[in-house]
Amino acid sequence: MTDEVVTESVDASTWSELQTVFGAKGDASSCWCQWFKLSRADWDAATREQTEALLHAQVQDGSPGVIARIDGEPVGWAAVEPFSAYPALARSPITRRTEGDPDDVWAVTCFVVRPEYRKRGIARALLAGAVEHARERGATIVEGYPVDPEVRPSLSAAERYHGTVSLFGDGGFEVVRRPSATRAVMRRELRV
């Protein structure tokens, strides 16, 4: 039997649930999905409290992603916003735009699933929720930048925060390029 995973866009009312998802230990509890939003110098200088406060402000200002629940319990999060909301994406050799890339894409940059809820299909539900979140806000193209454990099976759970190639492939995304052996740029066009 599988648990029913329900997703919804985050807002100010879901902040305490996001705090539960991000937790107090592990990579997510220090990043708070700010890696792609900050310059390297600002990232290096930021404290856990500062990155948490930044995500809190972003949630107050809009909806930078989706939350997943099982039986009302918050279990996961996916970040999805326009590519332009993530300045570090434009600087990375993996994710920066290349000739012919569309300008108006939305980007799914990371997934956080509480450790005790992993391997229950939560990332799949989060990706589907992220696509709907983007579509509802006018997106016509959504991208992801997943890792490929088929190429490197030793990837840790922490290294899979981008999602996996198979996850995005199952979600209707197609590989548009391979900037490295273990990473792909995957894209899905949305019907309006």
Molecular structure report:
By secondary structure, the chain is of the alpha+beta class. The protein has a single domain, classed as Aminopeptidase. It is built from seven helices and seven strands, in the order βααααββαβαβαββ. It has helices at residues 15-22, 28-31, 40-45, 48-61, 87-91, 122-136, 165-170; strands at residues 5-9, 65-70, 73-82, 106-113, 141-144, 174-180, 183-189. The longest helix has 15 residues, at 122-136.
Descriptive labels:
192 residues; alpha+beta; Aminopeptidase; seven-stranded mixed sheet; 7 strands; 30% helix
SSE blueprint:
Layout: E1 5-9, H1 15-22, H2 28-31, H3 40-45, H4 48-61, E2 65-70, E3 73-82, H5 87-91, E4 106-113, H6 122-136, E5 141-144, H7 165-170, E6 174-180, E7 183-189
Parallel strand pairs: 4-5
Antiparallel strand pairs: 1-2, 2-3, 3-4, 5-7, 6-7
Q: Round the mean pLDDT to the nearest integer and report it.
A: 92
First and last CA, distance: 34 Å
Report the β-strand fraction as a percent range. Answer: 15-25%
Molecular shape? globular
Series of H and E elements: EHHHHEEHEHEHEE
Fourth CATH level, the homologous superfamily: Gcn5-related N-acetyltransferase (GNAT)
CATH fold-level label: Aminopeptidase
Total number of beta strands: 7
CATH architecture: 3-Layer(aba) Sandwich
Strands ordered across the widest β-sheet: 1-2-3-4-5-7-6
Number of domains: 1
Q: What's this model, at a glance?
A:
The protein has 192 residues and is of the alpha+beta class. It is built from seven helices and seven strands, in the order βααααββαβαβαββ.
